[in-house]
Each structure stands twice: as structure tokens, then as C-alpha cells.
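Example (one chain per record):
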Amino acid sequence: MYISYCIINKINQKSYIGVHETENINDNYMGSGKAIKAAIKKYGKENFYSFILGIFEDKDEAYEFESFYVNEEFVSSSQTYNMKEGGYGSPVWTKEMKDAAKIRATGNTFKRGKTQLAWNKDLKLPNLCRPILDLSTGIFWESYKEAANVIGIKPRTLRSYLDGTYINKTNLIKC
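Predicted structure:
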């Protein structure tokens, strides 16, 4: 079953609305968005409460319900932790996409402060695993530049949309 839920910060009254797949309504799920996770880490789980907005058997119905509440106006409010409009959910990763992502990450030591290896040089990956996905068409792009040229904006503007610096006015997400 799919649950549409709302989480509210008891301290600053900011809210987060999302959808969660579960078999246990009382699983104490507290969201997966970057902003809500950071807020829970900052304020502590005890300073948040959550409640169910709706229960659905169908994933599409749950995301349609979410999209009604988590619209452009809601996302642009300073009183919410949601960073993008609702109704899309996370992309479903196929086995090929997961395998290609693992191959791409092999040798990536950047976060550990070591020298970055040329791990993806001359590596042919399946077209299914690209860093940018258009949710409306299902097309993947290899780079910000390529995707930005197709939709007619600057690559750095697209990067700001996808990193959450600006409100995302596209149907694109990072994979």
C-alpha cells in the first residue's frame, strides 16, 4: 500500500508532504527528501510529528494525490521542506541502471580526499543510466550541457534547478 503523509516541525512549523510504500502503517517513516532529513538531524526526531493524509493501493493514485498538495506554490513557500513539486516519485531503477551506476562509481575516491581516478574514461555505459532524466518523456542525457541545449536554457541554470538552488521549472531530475 502507499501512504501519503505530512511531517511538521514542532519548532518552526515547517512541513513536508510525501508518499511512502509500506505494509506497516506504524513504521515511523519520516521522509526521504534532503531538506527534511537535514532538519530531522538538526532538530532531532522528537521535534517532529507526522500524520497520514491518505492510504492508496495504487502508486499512481498516491502520487496524483501528492501532486495536488505539493504544487509550485507549496514548494516555493519558505514554510516547507519539499524541494520539488510532487506526483513524480523516485525513478524506478532497472538492474541495468544499477549495474551501470556501480561501474561508473568504481574507483571514485573523491570523497575520501584521494586522487580522483579517470574511472569513466572510454567506458561505454548503457543508455539507461545517464545522470539526467526527463520525467515527461523518459529520455536520459549524459550531461547538463546536452540536456540544457535541448530545453533551451544555460547548463549552469539547469544545474541550479537540479541541485535545489532554484525552483525546478523543468521535468528533469538527476539520477
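Caption: The chain has two domains: 2-76, 95-174.
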